[in-house]
Specification:
The complex is a heterodimer. By secondary structure, chain A is mostly helical. Helices cover about 65% and strands about 5% of the residues of chain A. In chain A, strands 2-1-3 form a three-stranded antiparallel sheet. By secondary structure, chain B is mainly α. Chain B is about 80% helix and about 0% strand. Chain B has 16 helices and two strands. In chain B, helix 1 packs parallel to helix 5 and helix 12 runs antiparallel to helix 13. The chains are: A mainly alpha, B mainly alpha.
């Protein structure tokens, strides 16, 4: 009897309360899983937003509006006498020549104020461009040349559609007259957008159309060279000592705690260190990539040491024992056998550290690498900025045209970072060895 | 002679010394009966000679260059007329700056008088003497090193042991750099902070409710009280960090849990590198994103709901900082979750728990110390983050808990106080170091706890 009732009674695992609870538990399971998906989705969505917002703003900076002018290099217009040496040619009135060519293009513009508005449509860099041309080839004086000169940043913004033509005149940076002149130039085919080489070859400038990233790239390069030259040997040496030689005592413990702690110290504190020690105590020059490189060295050392120790750990003991068995000294064993095998891993860590250093800006602000520097630095002791600092400077500028330049500079910086990190990944894949 | 030429000459000399030492060792070996009579390989003798030649000279060069400016300045000041020497420290500093500008041919700020001309001339002369003396000393040291090598090399000389000891010394010094850096940070920040507390009492700094670091240029200036109460800055920093953590902690943790427990290899292969990209983006880019994209979006959203939102709201800065911290938290948590032994999971499944129950009731408690450590590290990072707040948060320190208001942070103030030309001794610049000291102490405290927790936890399962 008992057996039949047991068979008839539903198993405890299938009782209504359990089934209900099971359904609830499974719903909770699915919900929990969905939270995870949403979290990753959000992170990726924000990443995409960031890239889209920067690229959509920045890509237009790679082209620049140019105006074709027919410039009469008349000796009289240029205020030139009989002499044709480099000094007089350099001091000639090219601004006047540019203005005159505009005047001949728009003969109807008579009033002084209108003329000034007309001249304002061309970048102040136009005169310098003509000057360079003449200095390179003095025979041009007396001839007429057709040149494409950069337009002013407001005209550039108009051509790129960042200034709305339908706005009322007093809310627009470009007024109705200028609009009409631009349209006239468009009809003549004398205004067009061309690839912006200035952006890649010039230093900083107050005029957006003349500003370029190259000065900052060179500054970053010098700082990174200093960083690499110091942090790689020191980092590898420290890793070798801690991993291979150091006795386990309170001193080495202290060193290890220090290293892991330095990795988490805010970067701006390193800037304060650089300001107080390198600038005020040792009297090194302000704004110099050398000082920036020294600070970045201190900041990247922990990264390099930690990566190098991991690489050393992965070299199997059999290699060491074989070398020692053949009669090598401990130093020979390490430098001839262990180090070469660990080197790819160390290099990977170093490149990742360099990429971090390239993106770092806060400590560089402290040591004066934020100055407005037009010239391309010629060495690690000359004043310079770095790429992230240049981005910060441009982001602070009020001109509308600097927004797209900032975004474009960010795109260049990110391209460098992605290239460096991909190289590190390639290096790891290429030389990774499972023992 | 410029120092760069000198360095190049010394390096060339060192290379030559290596060659010479090697040749010399082979020479003495043939006389003693063949290479096998040498204690070490010939190249070790070369290296030893090169070390003797190069190391002392380069050390002297380094020390000389580091202290040259300080000593010359000191000598020039000692030569100045007594009435100038008696000037207050700040004015003397300005005068010295002018003299240095005169020396290097830059634009000089003030009128150039005869005393300054004389001082500049003196400076120039000392510079000339110094660089000539340096060249003589360095080159004679290098020559003496080579001579020493030539004299010492004998078949019995244990060159390898000497070289290895030198390399060992280099390794030890390199590993001490970390300690020197920490000491350097503590000293540089501490000294200036102590000078600051000489101007402003410590309690007024720590507990004062008003921050307006304007100091008077004239005695009778209006509105130049110079209040250095840092509480509004601490509050602002905490507010922004709190916003960042409310964004980053849940997203980062859930992402880590999903990646470690649910995702298959294909999803992981895509999602993990994407998160790493997020981690590799420079903070200045996040700052630009916050100021130009996120802040207007938040302001427009707030205005459409009838709220007044500052264009430099704490919410925008905190939100973007949260974005920055997501990969940081997720990768640290991912590591600790993966370190939980498989046996715990299987035990839980065996008792009939679902996956999410296992995660919530077994894995997360087991990984909790590591996760807490990771969160603490993230908080320390949020507190010390500079560029995002410099670009997206406000400059005026306001004591408020409203995330839609503009607040200022410790790091923002450090940057604004120190960027730009400043006298180095005014309370205004020194205040930056006091803030830096607070920042360093707080982050150090958080880091030490976090690292301790993470370390201790790891030992449990290894």
């Amino acid at each position: 009897m008992s057996s039949t009732t047991e068979a008839a009674r539903p198993s405890i695992h299938l009782s209504p309360s359990v089934t209900a609870r099971l359904a609830r538990r499974h719903r909770a399971e699915r919900r929990f899983r969905r939270y995870g998906i949403v979290a990753i989705g959000l992170a990726i969505f924000f990443l995409a937003m960031l890239f889209i917002s920067i690229c959509s703003r920045g890509y237009t900076a790679f082209v620049q509006t140019f105006v074709q002018l027919e410039i009469v290099l008349d000796a009289e217009v240029l205020d030139l006498g009989a002499e044709r040496d480099a000094r007089t040619l350099g001091a000639a009135n090219y601004q006047g020549a540019v203005k005159q060519s505009l005047r001949s293009l728009f003969p109807d513009v008579k009033k002084r104020r209108d003329r000034r508005k007309l001249n304002g449509m061309i970048s102040t860099g136009a005169a310098y461009q003509v000057r360079e041309m003449v200095l390179a080839n003095p025979a041009l004086v007396g001839t007429t040349v057709e040149v494409w000169v950069p337009a002013d940043d407001d005209i550039d913004m108009l051509m790129k559609g960042h200034i709305d033509r339908d706005l009322p005149e007093d809310e627009r940076r470009v007024d109705d007259d200028q609009l009409a002149w631009v349209d006239h130039l468009l009809q003549l085919g004398r205004i067009e957008k061309r690839f912006n080489t200035t952006f890649f070859t010039a230093g900083d400038s107050r005029e957006p159309e003349l500003a370029g990233i190259w000065g900052a790239v060179v500054g970053s390069f010098f700082a990174l060279v200093v960083t690499l030259a110091l942090s790689f040997p020191i980092g590898v040496a420290a890793a070798l000592y801690l991993e291979e030689f150091a006795p386990k005592n309170r001193w080495t413990d202290l060193i290890e705690v220090n290293i892991s702690n330095l990795a988490a110290v805010p970067s701006i504190v390193f800037g304060l260190l650089g300001l107080a020690v390198f600038l005020n105590f040792f009297g090194l020059p302000r704004s110099a990539p050398l000082v920036g490189g020294l600070i970045l060295t201190l900041m990247t050392l922990p990264t390099i040491i930690i990566a190098s120790r991991a690489a050393l750990k992965s070299v199997p003991p059999s290699i060491r024992e074989a070398a020692l068995g053949m009669g090598a000294s401990k130093m020979q064993m390490i430098f001839h056998h262990v180090l070469p095998l660990a080197l790819p891993g160390m290099l990977t860590g170093t490149i990742i550290g360099m990429a971090q250093a390239l993106g770092e800006s806060a400590p560089l602000l402290m040591i004066g690498m934020v100055a407005f520097i037009v010239d391309i630095p010629g060495g690690p002791l000359e004043p310079a900025t770095a790429m992230p600092v240049q981005i910060y400077l441009w982001a602070d500028s009020p001109e509308r045209a600097f927004v797209e330049r900032t975004s474009a500079a960010i795109m260049v910086l990110l391209a460098f970072l992605i290239a460096m990190n991909s190289f590190a990944i390639w290096l790891r894949k290429r030389f990774e060895r499972r023992w | 002679m410029s120092s760069l030429t000198l360095i190049i000459i010394l390096l060339a000399f060192t290379a030559f010394a290596f060659h010479l030492g090697k040749r010399r060792s082979l020479g003495v070996a043939t006389r003693a009966g063949g290479v096998r009579k040498l204690h070490s390989l010939p190249s070790y003798y070369g290296t030893l000679t090169a070390l003797w030649c190069g190391v002392p000279a380069l050390i002297v060069l380094g020390l000389w260059l580091s202290f040259e400016t300080t000593i010359i300045t000191w000598l020039v000041v000692a030569e100045l007329p007594p009435e100038l020497r008696g000037l207050p420290e700040e004015e003397l500093g300005l005068l010295l700056n002018d003299i240095k500008n005169l020396v290097s041919g830059n634009v000089v700020a003030s009128e150039v008088d005869a005393t300054m001309e004389r001082a500049a001339e003196h400076y120039r002369k000392l510079q000339g003497i110094s660089s000539a003396a340096l060249a003589v000393v360095a080159i004679s040291l290098a020559t003496a090193g080579v001579g020493n090598g030539w004299r010492m090399i004998r078949p019995g000389l244990r060159a390898r042991n000497h070289v290895e000891r030198a390399v060992m010394a280099f390794l030890i010094i390199s590993s001490l750099v970390a300690i020197f850096t920490t000491i350097g940070i503590v000293l540089s920040v501490l000294f200036e902070a102590i000078r600051f507390f000489g101007h402003v009492p410590f309690t007024a700094f720590m507990f004062g409710l008003e921050w307006s670091p304007q100091t008077a240029i004239r005695e009778d200036q209006v509105g130049s009280s110079g209040a250095f109460g840092a509480v509004p800055l601490f509050a602002g920093t905490l507010l922004i960090s709190a916003i960042a953590m409310t964004i980053a902690a849940p997203i980062g943790l859930f992402a880590a849990v999903y990646l470690a427990e649910y995702a298959d290899a294909r999803v992981r292969a895509v999602a993990k590198p994407l998160l790493e990209i997020l981690a590799g983006i420079p903070t200045v880019v996040y700052g630009f994103f916050a100021a130009l994209t996120v802040a207007p979006v938040i302001r427009n959203a707030g205005e459409s709901m009838g709220l007044s939102v500052s264009s430099e709201s704490a919410l925008a800065a905190g939100f973007v900082m949260g974005l920055m911290l997501i990969p940081f938290i997720s990768s640290l948590s991912d590591d600790v979750i993966n370190a939980v032994p498989q046996s715990l999971r299987e035990g839980s499944y065996g008792l009939g728990a679902t996956k999410s129950e296992t995660i919530r009731q077994v894995i997360l408690p087991a990984a909790l110390p590591g996760i807490v450590g990771g969160l603490l590290l993230a908080i320390s990072r949020a507190i010390g983050e500079t560029m995002i707040v410099v670009m997206a948060a406000g400059l005026t320190a306001r004591l408020t808990a409203n995330p839609l208001d503009a607040v200022s942070t410790v790091t923002v103030q450090i940057v604004t106080l120190l960027v730009g030309d400043q006298e180095f001794d005014s309370p205004k610049t020194l205040a930056a170091f006091a803030l830096g000291l607070m920042l360093f102490v707080v982050t150090l405290f958080l880091n030490v706890i976090a690292l301790h927790v993470v370390r201790k936890y790891r030992e449990q399962y290894d």
